[in-house]
């Protein structure tokens, strides 16, 4: 499978616990994006990477959120001290990069439920 | 914040009819894209239209862009049951493209067999 893959697909956690999600982008894609989507809404931008450099972070990405892309390949998104408001679908996407405006390829998402 | 707003929020039509959904946005764009999302799944890219383009076709899809009105429309012709999904417009406002996308709130399309 050469698409964007995300792991896990579903995560249920207790409030206050830390969770980490992984995203494997399409191999030749330089850019990697994280979005969050709540029920009935469109995806909201969280952050994106050009190779291993994190170029922009949304104000939605509080201090409890951290994202990394250590070798410019896969990425992780960690949420510390989860809150019920963090319950959402977390979507990862990748694209070719600057000067190649085009589609972003999305993974199937990780659905997080904080209880 | 949501840059775009889709209209209508929900649309139900008979199979074989055409479906039209609209998107309005607020700021100048590099390009505008339409995505489809089946329930609880990831998004699938449908079509991209650049700011200097006015119309684009892809199979049964036709997209128009009016930058003076900051609006776009997506037409799906000869609808099929498999077209049932949520449809989102997304704008790229970066200078060179491929930075963040800002999505609208979506149109939920139901095709009645």
CA-based shape of chain A? globular
- Compute the separation of the termini of chain A in Å: 33 Å
Write down how many β-strands of chain B occur, each being a DSSP E stretch of 2 or more residues: 11
Kindly report how far apart the N and C termini of chain B lie.
36 Å
Strand content of chain A: over 45%
- Described by the principal axes of the CA atoms, the overall outline of chain B is globular
Low-confidence stretches of chain A: none
Structural class of chain B: mainly beta
Quaternary status of these chains? heterodimer
Low-confidence stretches of chain B: none
- Nearest-integer average pLDDT of chain B: 91
SS-based structural class of chain A? Answer: mainly beta
Q: Can you describe this structure?
A:
The complex is a heterodimer of chains A (115) and B (113). Chain A has 115 residues and is an all-beta fold. Chain A is 0% helix and 49% strand. In chain A, strands 2, 4, 5, 6, 9, 10 and 11 form a seven-stranded mixed sheet that branches. In chain A, a hairpin with a 6-residue loop joins strand 7 and strand 8. Chain A is globular, with a radius of gyration of 13 Å. The relative contact order of chain A is 0.34. The mean pLDDT of chain A is 92. With 113 residues, chain B is mainly beta. In chain B, strands 2, 4, 5, 9, 10 and 11 form a six-stranded mixed sheet that branches. In chain B, strands 1-3-8-7-6 form a five-stranded antiparallel sheet, with no helix packed on it. In chain B, strand 6 and strand 7 form a beta hairpin. Chain B is globular and about 45 Å long. The interface between A and B is medium-sized, with 33 and 28 residues.
Brief overview, please?
Chain A is mainly β. Chain A is about 0% helix and about 50% strand.
């Amino acid at each position: 499978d050469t698409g964007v893959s995300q792991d896990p697909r579903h995560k249920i956690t207790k409030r206050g616990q830390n969770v980490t999600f992984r995203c494997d982008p399409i191999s030749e894609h330089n850019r990697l994006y994280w979005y969050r989507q709540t029920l009935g809404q469109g995806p909201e931008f969280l952050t994106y990477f050009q190779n291993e450099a994190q170029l922009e972070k949304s104000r939605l990405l509080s201090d409890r959120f951290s994202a990394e892309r250590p070798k410019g390949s896969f990425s992780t998104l960690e949420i510390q001290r989860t809150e019920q408001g963090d319950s959402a679908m977390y979507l990862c996407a990748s694209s070719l990069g600057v000067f190649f405006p085009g589609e972003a390829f999305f993974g199937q998402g990780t659905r997080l439920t904080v209880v | 914040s949501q840059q775009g707003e889709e209209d209508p929020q929900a649309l139900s039509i008979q199979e074989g009819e055409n479906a039209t959904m609209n998107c309005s946005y607020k700021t100048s764009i590099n390009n505008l894209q339409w995505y489809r999302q089946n329930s609880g799944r990831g998004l699938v890219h449908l079509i991209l239209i650049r700011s200097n383009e006015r119309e684009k076709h892809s199979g049964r899809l036709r997209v128009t862009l009016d930058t003076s009105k900051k609006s776009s429309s997506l037409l799906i012709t000869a609808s099929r049951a498999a077209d049932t999904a949520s449809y989102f417009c997304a704008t790229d406002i970066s200078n060179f493209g491929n930075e963040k996308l800002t999505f609208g709130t979506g149109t939920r399309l139901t095709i009645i067999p």
